[in-house]
User: What shape does this take?
Amino acid sequence: MNQPSMHRHRFCPGHENAFGLSRRQALSQFGHGLGAIALGTMLNPSRSNAAEQLVDSLPHIAPKAKRVIFLFQSGGPSQIESFDYKPTLNKRHGEELPDSVRKGQRLTGMSVNQASLPLVGSPYKFARHGECGAWVSEQLPHTAEIVDELCFVKTMYTEAINHGPGVTFMQTGSQFPGRPSMGAWLSYGLGSENQDIPGFVVMVTNGQGGQPLVSSLWGSGFLPGKHDGVQLRSDADAVLYLQNPNGIDRFSRRMALDRIQELHHLKLAETSDPELETRIAQYEMAYRMQASIPEVTNIDDESEATLKMYGDDVKTPGTFAANCLRARRLAERGVRFIQLYHAGWDHHGGLPKGFVRKCKQTDQPTAALVKDLKDRGMLEDTLVIWGGEFGRTNYCQGKMEGGDFGRDHHPRCFTMWMAGGGVKPGYTHGQTDEFSYNVESGGVHIHDLHATILHLLGIEHERLTYKYQGRHFRLTDVHGHVVKELLA
Assistant: This one.
């Protein structure tokens, strides 16, 4: 399959190409340029857009992964309650956070004025699991069963200390809204394996509360709009406005689209407006999705054994379990980037009960997804990622009352894991201090994580760029390196 080129920015609006012509002038001289290209794509959808085949083709290097499933746990799950076992915190429970550990580092506005910052140990038991001996909390028994497939990164860190910038940073490589999301970059760089379904699909667990999850988190930013993530909803209309109105059948819809497209192509030949190109592509994708999306969301062909593996919630649309099963079905059909958002991990108070509730919602379907992919021979080329935007503090936010407590945001060390797709299984990377406050060795910044993900997909992160407002942007900004220790 032909692949999009990173050099597409040479023809961005407002910039000159190598011949000194504006994009509009160049297209005009090349016989209606993209109008003919788009028409050819519409008539032959198996071809990728020739406008994106300008110079180099991707991948740059041999890929280990073909697709990504990112299980994003929004709100910042506590590393201390999940994977970063710290018995020192239990031994020193109630003592003040030592100045030698804090080192004068910035706190959030929610705890900076606390008179006391008492250390608090996890109330949960930990044990080693698998041949690799990874430490896992008793609240994650299903994840404990798959640790030999997992590559733990105990030493993630970020500059973001609040949710908005933190989530945006993890999704887009910038704390500031408006940049393309990771899925959009992959759609732009690698295209789709299936012309009948979007290359970037998003699902959000229903009814979790917490910080808002807005569409800009899966948006295309300054990339063409066709690289936006498409959200699958849990109701009968999985994608809004996809179904035909009453009285309109599929044949009538096709005829109407053909006439609309003819008008678009006439206008495109006059103006070379890139928004028209996007609109043409989106109309055609929507038409094809009328057949492909119902097939993806219908789980009637799944075996009872598979449904049981994902748990009781799998038959309830909009649950994390249902979305995990949909993620596997989307991966089977060639979707490049599948993003699941599960909110509600922001436990400033009531952490013991809140953490247990989140684990019950996510632990079994998460492990089931990894097992299911492996059973089907798909794990080796599917990269599964689990984690949030930051971790939680080792001290209590507010007052400890009996066994109840909360933890504030902590960006200086937190845990994520990956599985499949070319990462090292049964491996734990990095070391935090005995208080789970600072990185001692093997720190992995968000830009490093993004660079490593792109590398696994066959992309050199410094070469996947797009020129916008006079600058060549990339997912990793001007930072990042591939963490080779994570590679199998």
